[in-house]
Amino acid sequence: MMWSIGLLLAAASVVLLVSRETVTVSSEGTSNRRAQGSVSSPPLINTLPRIKSAAPSGGPTLSDYKNAFARSANYWRFARDTLPAAIAGNADAQFYLSRALEYCTEHNSLYFQRRGKPIGLDEALQYAAQRHLPIDIAQDVYNRCHEFVDHDVSELGRAPDWLAQATASGQPLAQAITATKLLMQESQQAFVRAGGLPNPNNAPTVSDGSDPRELLRAAVQSKEPEVLFSIGDALTLMAPSTNSDNNTTRFAWWLVACQRGLDCSANAEWVKNSCANFPQCAAADGPSDLVQTLAGDKWPEVEERAQEINASLDQGKWGELGLGS
Question: Could you give the CA distance from residue 215 to residue 217 in angstroms, rounded to a whole number?
């Protein structure tokens, strides 16, 4: 199975989107971010919005923001509700605000623009069908993101800036996503140096001087399933190897993420994207069956590598995870 760089980022981006019920987070708070695993980052250019808001002590936790984002059917409302806490310095709010902004920017462009001009829902659904894109995801994008087209989004700030803030504060998911973007950027630069033509759609620019490998080593210590899933994608970009070897590594980390609590059901959006043209995997009975279907004849190697990853995670042997040194 061949995987493009664009699909790698898409998988990492949609892994957190799992249902449709609207839940909002309106309280502000400062994140009690762990000091362990925090990676320093250069000062962020001051482009963030300045809105005065009181920030009471305490506030939503990581799981609160994760659940609210996953269940939200309206990212415009979620973004506005999350903004005060992000401005107040809550790294989890900053990360999930960046996710909402990035998701709607990318998916509105993918589904609701044609020849650079916005299109309505009916035309977008027809256009998606012509390009063999999932119709149900196109409908979800409209529900979540159409208000971004009708409003001034400048008050919400920029997704890259919020991601950089969260990464600098040691938010594990932010670290993993930033590392993946940096590695993709490195891959594109190497491709251009080798004589290839740059593809701006597959080369996200990240203004960050961090070492992506250091970010991954810090993020993995959280053992959060979404982080483990993202690491599976990131590792395929870290060292040159055959496509088969890359898929074995990726699927092993995906299997570990599923085993440790990631939503890997047929309704999970990353599953819908991965299985859009592969109905057999969408009909899998459980996480192991799903990854086994994707892995094909590489399943024994995937299962063995997943066991090794789980053992290293349980024993805190971070140096045995292949995240660089």
Answer: 5
Residues 87 and 48 sit within 8 Å (Cβ to Cβ): yes
Q: Which residue has the tokens 């024994």?
A: 300
Residue with tokens 């509700």: 81
DSSP SS3 for 113: strand
Specify the DSSP element, H or E, that contains 315: helix 299-315
Residue 36 contacts residue 172 (beta carbons within 8 Å): no
What single-letter DSSP state applies at residue 118? E
Length of the chain: 325
Tell me the one-letter amino acid at 118: P
How far, CA to CA in Å, does 184 sit from each of 116, 204, 212, 248? Answer: 25, 7, 10, 19
Tokens of 98: 């960046």
Average pLDDT over residues 210-231: 94
Report CA 109 to chain centroid distance, whole Å. Answer: 17
Q: Which two tokens stand for residue 308?
A: 């090794």
pLDDT in tens, 60-86: 888 899 999 989 999 999 999 999 999
Q: What is the pLDDT of residue 203?
A: 47
Give the bridge partners for 209, in sequence order: none
Compute φ and ψ for 118, nearest 5 degrees: -65, 145
Instruction: Report whether pLDDT(45) > 60.
Output: no
